[in-house]
TrEMBL record:
NCBIfam families: RhaI_grampos. It is an enzyme of class 5 (isomerase). Keywords: Cytoplasm, Isomerase, Manganese, Metal-binding, Rhamnose metabolism. The keyword DNA repair does not apply. This is L-rhamnose isomerase. GO terms for molecular function: L-rhamnose isomerase activity; manganese ion binding. GO terms for biological process: L-lyxose metabolic process; rhamnose catabolic process.
Length: 388
């Protein structure tokens, strides 16, 4: 039997980080459908993120993406966040939107381009210093489109050199996390295509470098929970970018496409200590809301992560281990499925009430009138979006 008070305290202590870019307009390469009331600058993105935290009580951190969230005074942005009751989370670098990066950034054959990319990464660490952020999140679009285009090994050497320069710049309380993605925008080779490549680089760098698992960045059929279990075992799971996908990097709301997969991932996380703050795993959302309302979509995603976490925490580990030790294949599977098939919504409603929150976060948000207010207030100026 599960210890319900312990499950509840774990749920109350959970921290889910939301992405600043999730609040802005986004779309596909075919069309961006602009929505009314979306933030016009990073200050307004934080204001929206604060609404998600107010409704859910578990989303106090907001990831920034540089240069999308560039401001003249980061101290002011940090103070604004703190006034709103949230904090700046990870700083995401961007070495994929500059013309100079056509054939790569840190892996580019031209040392001048590499120097420019490294300078950006170091500038991101300056942003961490100014905002109080403790983690730099790196994703590189680097790769090649055609066999023979560049030397695979030489690109790995260049990558290592760049990562080393950034690692050396980290302060004692700062760390870096390296994200992988199996393809796109490069179609033949990607320089960090999988967890193994990220892990190998992080291992060489040292304890302040860990791997990011973006749930949308794997080939179909990949067993993501196995990767998660292995990285946790090695002490190298740094963060999640949660989203869901039907086909490729769809960036849909987490838990929408495959809630069972999310449960299986969180079962490995919960069982192996990944929810303990001391382990330092960041639970971030990396989603783009192309047609749905942004703030409610992020609230829904937070709730989906909470539901999967609650189910994972309800797994009767004693019964599971006993069945496993006895070789009881069906019994062990049944223990897991019992937890997954539990309706945890009443438990989460209780948890929210005990936290002084409305048991229904979406209703709580709707009742604030924020959605109507931002449509009225945020007219004029350029509305921020993915890349703005
Ligand atoms: C790349 O597809 C990615 O998942 C990285 O995390 C980027 O920083 C993010 O998307 C941008 O939306
Ligand atoms: Mn990502
Ligand atoms: Mn992605």
């Amino acid at each position: 039997m599960s210890d319900i008070p312990a499950v509840k305290s774990a749920l109350k202590a959970q921290v889910i980080e939301t992405p600043s870019w999730g609040y802005g307009n986004s779309g596909t390469r075919f069309k961006v459908f602009a929505q009314q009331g979306v933030p016009r600058d990073p200050f307004e993105k934080l204001a929206d993120a604060a609404r998600v935290h107010a409704a859910t009580g578990v989303a106090p951190l907001v990831s920034l993406h540089i240069p999308w969230d560039t401001v003249p005074d980061y101290g002011k942005l940090r103070a604004h966040a703190e006034d709103l009751g949230v904090r700046i989370g990870m700083i995401n670098s961007n070495t994929f939107q500059d013309d100079d990066y056509r054939i790569g950034s840190v892996c580019h054959p031209d040392p001048a381009v590499r120097r420019k990319a490294i300078a950006h990464l170091l500038a991101c660490v300056d942003v961490m210093d100014a905002t109080g952020s403790t983690a730099l999140k790196l994703w590189f679009a680097d790769g090649t489109n055609y066999p023979g285009q560049d030397d695979i090994t030489a690109r790995q050497d260049r990558l290592h050199e760049a990562l080393q320069a950034v690692y050396a710049r980290l302060g004692p309380e700062q760390r870096m996390v390296l994200e992988y993605k199996f393809f796109e925008p490069a179609f033949y080779t990607t320089d960090v295509p999988d967890w193994g490549t990220s892990y190998a680089h992080c291992l060489k760098l040292g304890p302040k470098a860990k791997v990011v698992v973006d749930t949308g960045h794997h080939a179909p059929g990949t067993n993501i929970e196995f990767i998660v279990a292995l990285l946790l075992r090695e002490g190298k799971l740094g963060a999640f970018d949660f989203n869901s996908r039907f086909y490729a990097d769809d960036d849909l709301m987490v838990g929408a496409a495959d809630p069972f997969q999310l449960f299986r991932i969180l079962h490995e996380v919960a069982k192996n200590g990944g929810l303990d703050a001391a382990n330092g795993v960041a639970f971030m959302l990396d989603q783009c809301h192309n047609i749905e309302a942004k703030i409610p979509a992020i609230i829904r995603s937070v709730m989906n992560v909470q539901e999967a976490t609650a189910k994972a925490l309800l797994v009767d580990l004693d019964a599971l281990r006993a069945a496993q030790a006895a070789g009881d294949v069906l019994g062990a599977n049944a223990v897991l499925m019992d937890a997954y098939n539990t309706d945890v919504r009443p438990l989460l409603a209780e948890v929210r009430q005990e936290m002084g929150l409305n048991p229904d976060p979406l209703a709580a948000y709707a009742a604030t009138g924020h959605a109507e207010k931002i449509i009225a207030d945020r007219v004029g100026g350029t509305q921020a979006g993915w890349g703005a």
